[in-house]
Amino acid sequence: MEAQRWALTGESIKFSHRLRDGQNRLAACMRAGVSFATYVVGIDDNAFDRMDQGRNRSGADVLAIAGFQNTAALSGAVRWANLIETGRAKQRDTYPPPEILRLLQERYGRLPGYLPQARAIYNRTRQPISLITALLYLFDKANPHKASEFATAWETGNMAPKFKPLTLMQRAISELQGMSSGRIHDVVRAAVIIKAWNLFVTGQRGNKTMLQWIVGQDFPEIRS
Q: Is residue 10 scored above 80 in pLDDT?
């Protein structure tokens, strides 16, 4: 572009209510300090997820195009939140990218606010950020006061007696990982965390047996 060898092709700069395609070309124009000729078109907001389908867009891609940040973790969090809320965690459904965006916009708009604490918990425990984000949101929805206590203790590693379920939870997950070469079924992990929450929110300290869960059992509901 700087050498004036940029040709006018059929590729266009696309806008809806914001820039949808052409970010790299415009950035190159600014860096080169020269102008270039291009076509500019307007598209419908609902059509952008179907642009440039040479490769399939992921949920993270669609969220990024829509202007969201930390989209890989956020896309996973949307999926987990909906799986658990709709009783489909054991089925482990996947959702097409436009559905991920719709769910985030229409049902889970508060999820991005839980990402920073989820990342802090991941840094200390290595629990998956997407799952943590979804569970922090769902726990807060069930019981905001208890959820704040639970999340802070999870983040800081508070070992006070009232947080014994968290200690048991981390131990149970570590033992499961040790029995399976470091890997643990994602639904089992989610169930163990929810069972720890249920103990905490109902004022129980619990024991190791109370956190056991296998795929053949009903997935635990989040108590309030």
A: no
Distance CA 50, CA 68 (A): 17
Tens digit of each residue's pLDDT (9 = 90 or more) over 167-210: 999 999 999 988 877 788 999 999 999 999 999 999 999 999 99
Question: What 3-state class would DSSP assign to 18?
Answer: coil
Backbone dihedral angles phi then psi of residue 20, each to the nearest 5 degrees: -110, -30
Domain ranges of the chain: 12-43, 60-211
* Rama region for 27: left / alpha / beta (φ>0; ψ in -120 to 50; rest): alpha
For the CA atoms of 122, 126, 131, 137, what is the dihedral angle to 10 degrees? -30
pTM for the full predicted model? 0.77
Half-sphere exposure of 7 (CA within 13 A, CB side): 2
